[in-house]
Structure formats: structure tokens, C-alpha cells
Amino acid sequence: MTIEKQVDPSRRGLLIATCAAGGVAGLATAGALVSTFQPSERAKAAGAPVEADISDLKPGNMKVFEWRGKPVWVLKRTPEMMASLNKTEDKVADPKSEKTYQMPMPEYCKNQHRSRKEHEENLVVVGICSHLGCSPGQKFQPGAQPSLPDDWQGGFLCPCHGSTFDLAARVYKNKPAPDNLDVPPHMYLSDTKILIGKDEKGEA
Amino acid sequence: MAFVEKKLPANAPIAAKALNWVDARFPLTKLWNDQWGQYYAPKNFNFWYIFGSLAALVLVIQIVTGIFLVMHYKPDANLAFASVEYIMRDVPMGWLVRYMHSTGASAFFIIVYLHMTRGLLYGSYRKPRELIWLFGVGIFLCLMGEAFFGYLLPWGQMSYWGAQVIVNLFGAIPFIGPDLSLWIRGDYVVSDATLNRFFSFHVIAIPLVLLGLVAAHLIALHEVGSSNPDGIEVKENLGPDGHPLDSIPSHPYYTVHDIFGVSVFLLVFSAIIFFTPEMGGYFLEYNNFIPADSLKTPPHIAPVWYFTPFYSILRATTSQFVYALAVGVIAYVGLVVTKSRLSGFFKLVAVIIGAAILVGFIAFEAKFFGVVLMGLSVVILAGLPWLDHSPVKSIRYRPDWHKYVYIVFGIAFLVLGYLGVKPPGVWGSAHLGGIELDIAQTISQICTFIYLGFFLLMPWWSAMGTPKTVPTRVTFHPH
Prior knowledge:
Chain A is an alpha+beta fold. Chain A contains three helices and eleven strands, in the order ααβββαββββββββ. Chain A has two domains: 3-35, no CATH class; 49-203, 3-layer Sandwich (Rieske Iron-sulfur Protein), CATH 2.102.10. Helix content of chain A is 21%, strand content 21%. Chain A has a three-stranded antiparallel sheet, with no helix packed on it. In chain A, strands 2-3-4 form a three-stranded antiparallel sheet, with no helix packed on it. In chain A, strands 5-6-7 form a three-stranded antiparallel sheet, with no helix packed on it. In chain A, a hairpin with a 6-residue loop joins β6 and β7 (164-165). Chain B is mostly helical. Chain B has helices at 14-23, 28-37, 51-70, 80-89, 94-122, 130-152, 157-171, 177-185, 192-224, 250-275, 308-316, 321-339, 344-363, 366-379, 384-387, 400-421, 439-456, 458-461; strands spanning 40-42, 247-249, 429-432, 435-438.
């Protein structure tokens, strides 16, 4: 090898060290840019519980409240609606609500009607489909109708991918949505006032 | 080497002198000649070969109209919807610029789908044009990104819920999914933060990548040369001047040819913009004229038409369909092991991957596999150069029954696209041996199998049958 082509090992070492240091700085910068994508402090702070006034809610009707930017449904079920849950028991994928979607299932709602004992008829769920996050529509009328099976018992239909839910917001078997709709932690402040996002155990 | 500038006669025109001055410092004339002026293209191009130029034209339309839209649009969840309406009603000629942009998006996809069909029919992706094809697939992915990010900007109901669904697709990925979709949204729901970052992606990040890929696509094309409807390498028959005998310089021949194509395209494009810019709800969906409402999904939501074939595949993947997929995976691994020329090592890899997928079917939810299949149905296009084992490139010289394979594939793609714009269960249900079947869902599941089978089985079916004799020179009848 000629003298010109000999590598100066100390300079080569310095070059490698410089590249490594530059690489670390580059990665750190990329890390900073990537973190700007996370929810901001303001977004994180906007999660307080909300009070839902259901004094004007008639049986068979539903009201929608906004909690953490998501729709929370309060459905006051009629006795017929409650009875339909027995008929859908073996058609839904998870009748006992053993799986959860985005938040743990409150213990006090782990029953067939998926509601608190003191107001069994009131279903309180986050109206966000466990498939891809659309908000299912109301299909309370039983019987055959477009996009629904002939023995429909009343419930909810997600317009996006056709997942169906019964009147306890339990998902039917063999639908794109894997899980029942979430029941948020909630408690009754009075017979007509529900606090969504907080229960006896504290805030969600 | 010293700097040498070509000497022009003292009485040369000033323009020639100026060009000479530039050429000595920047390869302007060389670039023009390499990329177009002296770029020799086969003389037997038919109408299928217009769509590349048209795609470039629509790209320019989108960029120019986009620049002017950004001057009036406000990327703010409280102002966005109103600012689009402001462009439509109050900005002079704003409606025209906006309709050019929104119609341009659909036109872009029509042109690109036809451009890809051309590639499929004439084997344009075959060696040595694999990289052109891969850059093209990259462009297609960028276009899908542009379309998706751009669709959120008007902040209508479809914008909002479309973004909600697509971002939640990432949430289906096991383990990291929920955090990933949170990170993409930048909030717990699609919100102002999401709108702002999508705006940034739509107007700067993706367009930069897109332009880079378009440049790479063209440089690669002009390096290896265009293919043609006969799938013959024209460079194998060179004339005395060193150019292929069957080729003509792009300028002026294809310049004139393309200007004619552009005129026809602009006639149709203008007719749509002026007479039916919403295209009956297919180019601009009616629900998007309602401001975004985070509490209420519209009764029927569907993506814009160009996404629907892939969306149908997503929707077809139910928990029962996973059983059919499992049978498909087992059969495919069996086929790879018994009927392929791969080495024992790769066969073992295929068996391991197949087993892993089967375990995945049990461990993960069907919705994850819906997302996987949808992604696969797009990126599988990138595999074409290596999946196609036919001895001839062009459909003209394939065995006749290959044409039927392409037709069945095309029909499956169109049916998937049609079903994707329709609500679930559009064709009612049928009772089959006590099981209730949603007809539309079952058909989209069959079409999903056809779509994926077309590509995955291509190494076998494309090599079957006897191809016709390929001529040595292109088929060309002077008019």
C-alpha cells in the first residue's frame, strides 16, 4: 500500500465518534418532534366528569351527553325493552360483559341489563362502537327492517360496518365490533341527575 | 480541468447565447433532452399510454389550486367548516378553485387506477421496470394519504367520522394500537389538534414526498425506457443512429399526442366541474355539507369511492370469515411447500409464518385482521414484479384464458368498490341450511378471496398455459 492511501486510525476514530455524536443529536431531535404528536396538557386536562339531567327523559327515549368529547347515552328502557334482553342473551357475543373495550367495566353494572341496581331501567353507555369508533344509531323498533335481521329485538346499529347491539349495548355475535359498548363510571346524585365519569370509587 | 464554455459565433441570437451560458453552468438542455426532447418512446403506444401525462397534469392542477385554497382556508375546528363555505360563497371565483381541487382528487384516482390497469395489462412492471413500479406504488400510497388527510379539512360530518374510523384502524393493532391512535389524533377524540396536524400533512409533508417519488418514477422510466402494448424491449433493435428502430422522440410526436389527450380530458373535467361537481354525492358526499358533530355519526357513512374496494375488504372480515381465512392460509402454505421451487429454508419459513398467522387468528380479534387484509390488499401491488412468472409481458400474447382471469379480478374489484359505498346488508339476507347469510357481506368475502388469490396464486397461474409467439418488432400500422 502506498503512503497516500494509508488510513490515519486516530482520525478515522475521531470521524466515527463525530458521526456517532451527531447521530445521537439527530435521534434526540427526532424524538422531540415525535413527542409533539402526543396529547397536549390542555387536551389531558379536559376530562372532568359531567352532570346529566334526565328529569325530562321519558321511557323508551334516549338523551346524549358529551363527556371527554364522546357521546354518552342515557336510555330509559321500557319493561318490554328490558324483557328483550332475555331473548338476545344467547345471540350476543359477551352476555356477561367479561371483555372490556376502552375502560374497565364497573362492577355495579356487571349484570344482564348492564345498569346500576337503583335505576335498572337506565342504560348509561359511551356511544362509541368498539370496532372503529363510530357512534351507532338508534334502532329501537323491533321487527324486520333494512340492514337488520328479521327477528330484530330493538337495539343499536352502527352505520359504518353494520355491527349491531341489543338494548343493553351488548354486541351481537359475528359482527365486526368485538366488544360491548363501554359503561362509564357513573353514579346517581338524585333520581334525575347522573354524574358521568365519577362514582363512589372516584374519577375515571 | 479548466472551465470551458462553448464559443458561439458573435452574431448568434441572444437567446442562443443565454442558453449556452446556462448550459455551461447547469445541464438544462441535457435535462430536457434526456427527460423528454430526445427521449425515444415506442411508436405503438395506444390510448392507455395517455394516463401518465394526465396524472402529471392533475398533480399540477391540485398543487396550484391547493396553494390558492390555503390562502382562504382556516385549519381550526371552530372555523374550518365556515371558511370552506366562505370560499364557496364569498371569495370571488373561490367556488371554481375549490371544485377544481375536489374534482381533481377524484380525477386523480380515476387516472391513476387506469394507469395501473395499463401496467397490469401490458406487464409494464416486469424486469427491468421493477423500480418504476415500486415508486408508482409509493405514489399511490401518498395519494391515498393526501386524499385521507385532505378529506378531514372541510370539517364536515363525513370528514370527522371518516377520520375517526381510519385513525381507529391503527387502534386494532395488538398491544400498541390504542396508544398509537391516541398519538396520531393528539387527543382522545378527533379534534382541533387532529385537524391541524392533518392540515400540515396535507399541504406540506405528503406533497414533498409525492413530488420526490414522481421525480424518481420519471427518472427511472427515462433511464430504462418505456414499455409498450406488445411488451417488447425496443432497445433490442437499434438503428444506425443508436436509437431504437421502433421508437420516436417524445418531442414533437408525443407532445402533440399528449396535448390531444389533455384536451379531451379537460373537456370532461370541465363538464364535471361546471355541471355536476358533487357527482351525485360520489365526489363530494352529501353528509359533508353538515358541520362535524362529535356526538352523532351520520346514518350512513362510507368513504369516498376511490377507497371503497379496500374498505369493503375491511368490512368483510368478520369473526366467522377468519375461519375461511384460516383454511386459505393452510391451503396456501400447503401449495408453497408442495408446488414451489423455493428452497427448503424458505419453505420452512413459509410454514412458520403460516403457523404464526393461525395462532394470531385465535389470539387476536377479527377487526385486527380486517385492518391487516385491507393494508395487504394495497401493498400486495408492490409484489407484482416478483409474483408474475409469465414468459411474456403483454396480455396480447398470454394464453386466452388469462384474459378471463383478469376480467374476473376486475369484476371482483369493481363489486368490492360498489358494495363499499352501500350500507351494510344492501342485498338482503338468504337462509342457507339454517344459517342466515348477509348476501352482500358473503359476496364481498368471496371477492376478497378472488382479489387476494389473484395476486397470491399468480406465481402459479401466470406460468400456466402456452403463450403465443411474441413478434420481434412492435405491431404498428401507420395511419
